[in-house]
Amino acid sequence: MVVQTYAESSSSSASTSQNKEPPLVVTTCKNTPHYRLCLAVLRRSPKSAKADVWELALIAVGAVKTEAERAVDAIKKLRKGGEGKKVAAALKQCAEAYDAVLEGDVNQAEEGLKLGDPKFADNGMADAAGEAESCEGAFAGVGKSPLRRVNSAVHDIAEVARAIVRNLL
Length: 169
What we know:
7 helices; elongated; disulfide bond; Pectinesterase_inhib_dom; Pectinesterase inhibitor domain-containing protein; enzyme inhibitor activity
């Protein structure tokens, strides 16, 4: 199963000139660990052109949510495939991890930003990145993870979101 992630779309649009981006988006993305991915995430929202840093953070958190939802969909499809016990156990762990991302971490980050408390958003995005790593690690004894791309995307976008949030601390 192939799922196009923000990370993959960012490499195809990386040649876009920085001059076309709003100055705040460029400055903000330069302060993240994944500049091109940041641009791709923010570029997907028309709101980013006139957004302040708070709104850019909300856009990035929304992108984490979108990728986590893709992960959940991929897990559901893989679970229908009747994998072996080890893979089934790894998928169960991933399902729990992404439930935590969607039900806890993303909500915590969104609420923190909406209520003007970016520390909660910082913690939520740190936890989301950790949950993606946890899912990937669940496949360590099984072989290659079928969720590698989406886990990497959630992890990296959560790092971008966290870096944007840290501008608000």
